[in-house]
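Cross-posting from the modeling subforum.

Setting up a comparison between two proteins and wanted a second pair of eyes on the formatting. Protein 1 (sequence, then structure tokens):
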Amino acid sequence: MNMETINWDGMKVTSAGLYSGLPIEKYHSDICLGPSISSSGLRAIGNGSPASYWATSYLNPLAEPQEDKDHFRLGQAAHTLFLGEDNFRELFVVQPATYPGARGEAKWNGNANYCKDWKADQLEAGKRVLTADQMHTLQGMAGLLPWQVNCPNSGLKQCGEVMQGALDGDVERSLIWQDHATGVWLKARPDLLPAGSNSAVDLKTTRDADKAHNGIADLGYHMQAALVAEGMRQVMAIELEAFDFIFVQTSQPYTVRIISLSADQLAEGRRELRRAVNIFANCLEKNEWPTAHTLPVTWTPPLWHERKIENLVAANDLPDLGEVA
């Protein structure tokens, strides 16, 4: 990289830059001088609707709290652990297997008062709780289980590209800038910016590595990559040349799959991204966050239903309504 990184000073961001030391919870909050949105919000708008974004947005004073679901917690733990961040133990804690019951050590019971109090203490301390099974899964995803030693591409440490440095570089830098067209603040946070390279890397967890290609389309990850590309262009004056997703499966055999986006795919993502940014700015101006498909439409039957009717007609098995009249 050829730009100096700004160490976040704890105040609101008032100028474009590449920021370090910005905690993820602050990144997703009211961190900028004006309303801001990141990839997750733009993808919620682009793939869903403005209402999908607004329901849990930090901008919404009546937003519904977001549940700390297992796959979100596991994904965040994987990012923190695998990308070499130093604060894993500050952010996560492993739930004990037993607790001191009335008759001595007992198997952990989430309904027991001791266990409830322990979990409440961890949450109050700002820590997210992982089970022993989840830690085992993280070890498998890392490629640290004993049986993985002779299993190439089973877990990150067994992946040839990772061994060659695919996950080396500057971690969790935040690109923040103001959109010239709309004035809204945009935020992008690539997992990794390789040193001396006009590229970016993002680590993803997946239930099925063989279906990772579908995940990019379903979850709009190409829009996320396009936002990083735009941020690098606006903040760093760099044209992104490559964007790689490193997917690691969350179950045995913990397969790693690396998928790169082409320049054409990034360009297509930019078009979808621009549409979502424009919608966000328009919703801010009107203070209206509609759901999708608000206008009445004519029913479009699914293909299977059309074929069913065609088969009934071909078999002369549909009554003539004139005969009924």
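Protein 2 (same layout):
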Amino acid sequence: MKRDFDEIRAFIEREIVPRYDEFDAGHNRDHVLTVISQALSLAQYYPEVDRCMLLVAAAYHDLGLDFGREKHHIHSAAIIREDRRLDQWFAPQEIETIADAAEDHRASSNHEPRTIYGRIVAEADRIIDSETIVRRALQYGMRHEPGLDREGQYRRLMEHMQEKYAAGGYLKLWIPHGENACRLEEFRKILDNEQAFRQLFDTIYDSLNR
């Protein structure tokens, strides 16, 4: 099916990216633009990947947050399948592959992404930067549990960090060519150093409460 990358990208920037302005600070416009950029960068290692399909999967991956966080990946896939505007560029099976990629991106998923598109989007969504990780998680906690004081937010954050990012945590990396593996090891060193992690938390907490 004939399609033009720039045309699809213009559609994404006009119709899809602005929808992220309604989400929390950890899943806003900057987040989706970063995921799109990282996904397209990772695509260079996989010449068989259709960049138009990958662009759409990355752009739509968190739209399901409109229906809540718990099953947002499933809702994101449903949004892709139901968006008839995509029919002008993609065949039904391609749309299904795009939807699968969005559904498989979630870090807590209990199965490996089914396609290379899912693995790339999942990897692009793993923004392994210590300050970004802590800031996003803290912003989420402050929004959804505003009654917690500093110590409460710290305990909630530390529990989440250990569950997700520590050795044996549920975060899985799928692309060996990216830099996330090295960055994850660096972040784990900070997690293992309680003084360093507390200092990072306090700095970010104070910046969000000025």
